[in-house]
UniProtKB/TrEMBL annotation:
The chain crosses the membrane at residues 42-61, 68-87, 93-112. Keywords: Membrane, Transmembrane, Transmembrane helix. It comes from Caenimonas terrae. This is VanZ family protein. It comes from the Bacteria.
Length: 130
C-alpha cells in the first residue's frame, strides 16, 4: 500500500500543474468572485506550495532540506514555464519567489513536526516527566 503522504503529494502536484494551465479568463472569473484585502492568487500559490513541501517532507524516507527545497524550486520553475502554453498567461519571477516562500514555510513546519513526533515517540517530548 502506498503511503498516504505520497498519494497526497502526487495529488497536490497534479493540482498545481492543472491550475497553472488554466486559461487566464477562467482564472479571472474565479478570482473576481473573491473580494478582500489579500490577493487570492498569491494566497493560493503560497498555500499550495506549503502543503506540497509539507507532504513531500513526510513522504520521503530521508527528508533533506536541499532535496525538498530543490524539488520545490524545480516544480516552481516548471509550472511557471507551463504558463507559456496557457491562454493569456505569462510566467514571472514573482511567481517563483512566492511559491518558494510557501515551500520554505511548508518544509519548516514539516521539519518541526517530524522532530516533535520523534521526541514524542522516544518519550522525551515532556521534560516535566523526568
Amino acid at each position: 500500500m502506498k503511503s498516504p503522504w505520497k498519494i497526497l503529494s502526487a495529488l497536490l502536484i497534479a493540482t498545481v500543474l492543472v491550475s497553472k494551465l488554466m486559461p487566464n479568463p477562467w482564472k479571472m472569473a474565479v478570482m473576481d468572485r473573491w473580494h478582500g484585502p489579500i490577493d487570492m492568487s498569491l494566497a493560493a500559490h503560497l498555500l499550495m506550495f506549503a502543503l506540497t513541501a509539507f507532504s513531500i517532507t513526510h513522504a520521503v524516507t530521508t527528508p533533506r532540506a536541499w532535496k525538498i527545497l530543490g524539488s520545490a524550486l524545480a516544480l516552481s520553475v516548471a509550472t511557471e514555464a507551463l504558463q507559456f502554453f496557457a491562454i493569456e498567461r505569462h510566467p514571472s519571477l514573482q511567481g517563483v519567489v512566492t511559491e518558494m516562500t510557501g515551500a520554505f514555510f511548508g518544509w519548516g513546519l514539516a521539519a518541526v513536526h517530524l522532530r516533535l513526533a520523534r521526541r514524542w515517540r522516544s518519550g522525551t517530548a515532556n521534560p516535566a516527566q523526568k
